[in-house]
Design goal:
Largest sheet: none
Low-confidence stretches: none
Helix content: over 70%
Structural class: mainly alpha
Radius of gyration: 36 Å
Number of strands: 0
Strand content: under 5%
Order of helices and strands: H
Number of helices: 1
């Protein structure tokens, strides 16, 4: 009878410990997911901001290049017309 009771008690303790471990593991995994999600969102926001800044800088330099090209193309025929006249 004592042996049977000890066996039942051991199974109960093991079951309780397993349940507690599973609950704790589930809780920790959910916290980890939340932290990962938050970090991912912050990282993506930083990347979006950097891409927007880079895009603006690229457009700005493109306009400077285009203006320089237009000025060069306009100056070359003007110079040729002055030389040939």
């Amino acid at each position: 009878m004592l042996d049977n009771e000890r066996k039942d008690w051991s199974e109960h303790v093991l079951l309780t410990a397993t349940d507690r471990f599973e609950r704790r593991l589930t809780h920790e995994i959910s916290l980890l997911r939340q932290e990962f999600h938050t970090a991912l969102q912050e990282g993506l926001a930083a990347i979006r901001s950097e891409l927007a800044t880079t895009r603006v800088e690229t457009l700005r330099w493109s306009f400077v290049f285009w203006i320089g090209q237009v000025a060069t193309v306009a100056a070359l025929p003007a110079f040729m017309l002055r030389v040939w006249r």
